[in-house]
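Field notebook, page 201. I keep forgetting to write these up properly, so this time I am using the form the group agreed on. The chain and the ligand, guanosine-5'-monophosphate, are recorded exactly as supplied. Prediction of the bound pose follows.
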Amino acid sequence: MWSNIKRRGILLVLSAPSGAGKTTLLESLKRVEKFVFSISCTTRPARPGEQDGIHYYFISEDEFDQKIQKGEFLEYATVHHYRYGTLLQPVMEALARGEDMLLDIDIVGAASLRASGFSEVRESLVDVFLFPPSLEELRRRLIQRGTEPVTEIEERIERAVKEAQHWREFRYVIPPLSPEEMLSAVRAILQAERFRASRYF
Ligand code: 5GP
């Protein structure tokens, strides 16, 4: 009966161009939902306040190459001149334990997961695209955030426009909404996805 039935973990992928409100959403999501957060490897230098092993594993180009060669990445991509990769082992372990995992990866990474050679990854995947706000609002947010040099802001905006063209490839799309509405939209998606019969065995 039901007591013998278990659920496989969900791989919740949130992809969004810079300035779409993803960081705020991730923070509030982590407070209200139980997730294992996938810590990516990156060749990008740490920003002030970022800690190795918490926000990312900050590694060198050589170390990144070695990990690719050893097959340690589930997916990897180059974003804004730096490389980012999701480690395979923690994802597989979380899924095997039936735990839900949260991945903050770009649209290239999301596409790799949809095409993954691991059937458990494809079946666990719930990919969500956060649609960026208007160009004016995007520019305002990027300037206000101040994490990128002003010269890179136009580059980020251009990239956001290009990335937004891929929204149809995702299972879910969240339009520009208030932070509270975005949070309830993602929670509603999760709620339904957790009850899909195909996740139970
Ligand atoms: P940031 O440098 O601002 O932390 O992240 C830049 C972009 O890289 C974000 O869009 C983020 O989703 C993406 N990203 C972070 N980690 C990974 C990863 O492991 N794989 C891929 N494909 N993208 C990632």
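OBSERVATIONS:
- The mean pLDDT is 94.
- Residues 2-196 form a domain with the Rossmann fold fold (CATH 3.40.50.300).
FOLLOW-UP: compare against the apo run.
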